[in-house]
Amino acid sequence: MTSERMTVAAAAPSYVRAIAPYQGGRPISEIARTYGLREDEIVKLASNENPLGMSPKAHAAMLAAANDLGRYPDGSGHALKQAISRKFQVPADFITLGNGSNDILELVAGALLGPDAESVFSQHSFAVYALATQAVGARAVVVPATKPALGHDLAAMAAAVTPATRVVWVANPNNPTGSFLSGQALRGFIEEIPSSVLMVLDEAYTEFLPEADRYDALRWVESYPNLLVSRSFSKAYGMAGLRLGFGVAQPAVTDLLNRIRQPFNVSSLAQAAGEAALFDEEFLAQTADLNARGLVQLETGLSALGVPSLPSRGNFVLARVAASPGLTRLATPGAAVGDAVFGTLLKKGVITRSVSAYGLPDWLRISVGTQVENEAFLRALGALVAEHDAG
Ligand SMILES: Cc1ncc(COP(=O)(O)O)c(C=O)c1O
Fold first, then answer.
1. Is the CB of 177 under 6 A from ligand 1?
2. Atom of ligand 1 nearest to the CA of 244
């Protein structure tokens, strides 16, 4: 093929053409359209969102900010950074704001990785680590997960670091497995990796941790120039649609991220809502409480149906649907049982998440909803088990 005849798409870097796009949870409107269902009869437990929505205080602050949308947002995010600094006791110049915490992850990849670099992450960990690595032509080094917990094997991850490694990604708790590493294990890991390697500690679900498991990695950043902690407003804060997250690292790292950040990457609505959301402790406590009860409801309900699940510290559970003979019969031989159960539930208006793209074909991820939504899911799954157990 001569260069004049080559298409734009064919001329794109091979590592970009090889990317399998991120598959998000299916939206309610799309499922209603596809299956002829009413939106209000659909239950969405697919994207680890907060079933309570967002804090009423954050909502009010967002509406007030909507009066001034003719202006660009504050590109430095001054007021929100001050609020984060006050709440978490970190210096404001340690903070980078992101359009969702995904943005922070991509900024890290854009600033530190490239075609000669490697990044290390665990098998079955959050999909964006692989995507962000591949998008800049770096090599992904995937370390097998522990068995049977499917958690991060920190010793093996440390051993996978080579002179080409620039970033190690650790999600705690991890999505989609819900697995958890203690503060002590994480701190030991940072001590072990070279100072030229950035450890990204992704704490998108940290607000759901029970008191006994809490640790404060934001306190560690002052001591470790190669640590970045990322946080999200999409989960416990219930602001997934607004897109807001932040990263905390020493100024040398923050400065690098700021060089490639879009000047106005966080909208005025998200900044205003975020500032108010941070201090609505009552809403956060209500969220954590609902989630703790929902986890028990889902775990016990699944177990009663003969479906084991992993102990989860997030706002979702990972269930091994292939353990149920009835559910296994839903899949054609050789096909992923998780996909079959996902597809069958979808037609009944229950949206869960297939995790076969995570290398987990026997599993299904279910986000914690309200008591009524969890019950609707368990009822729908129970009907499938009963129907197909009978043969
Ligand atoms: C572990 C983890 N990190 C980061 C994110 C990104 O969230 P957001 O960009 O909405 O903040 C998610 C979302 O699912 C996640 O599960």
1. no
2. 11
Q: Give the mutation target among 177, 205, 235 for probing the ligand 1 site: most ligand atoms within 8 A of CB.
A: 235
For the chain, the structural domain boundaries read 8-52+282-389, 56-280
Cross-strand partners of 230: 202, 247
Beta-carbon count within 10 A of 7 CB: 8
- Ligand 1 pocket, 98 CB below 6 A? no
Q: Fold identical between 8-52+282-389 and 56-280?
A: no
Average pLDDT over residues 303-328: 97
User: 101 C-alpha to center of ligand 1: Å?
Assistant: 6
Residue 268 in contact with ligand 1 by CB distance below 6 A:
no
Residue 235 CA to ligand 1 center (angstroms) comes to 8
Q: Look at the pTM and tell me if it is higher than 0.85.
A: yes
Average of pLDDT values for 161-190?
Answer: 98
Q: Which whole-number Å values give the CA distances from 263 to 15, 75, 209, in the listed order?
A: 27, 6, 33
Q: Are 287 and 52 within 8 A, CB to CB?
A: yes
The mean pLDDT of 52-69, rounded to a whole number, is 97
Asked whether 169 lines ligand 1 (CB < 6 A), one says no
Architecture of domain 56-280: 3-Layer(aba) Sandwich (3.40)
**Is the pLDDT confidence value at 389 over 80?**
no
CATH (residue range 8-52+282-389): 3.90.1150.10
Residue with tokens 């102990």: 311
Q: Is the pLDDT of residue 236 over 70?
A: yes
Helices (H), the chain: 8-11, 14-17, 28-35, 56-65, 78-88, 101-112, 127-135, 154-159, 183-192, 251-260, 268-278, 281-304, 325-328, 337-347, 371-389
Cβ of 165 below 6 Å from ligand 1: no
- Verify whether ligand 1 is closer than 6 Å to residue 175 (CB atom): yes
The whole-number average pLDDT for the span 157-176 is 98
Distance CA 334, CA 312 (A): 28
What is the average pLDDT across 32-60? 95
Ligand 1 atom at minimum distance from 125 CA: 1
pLDDT higher than 60, residue 2: no
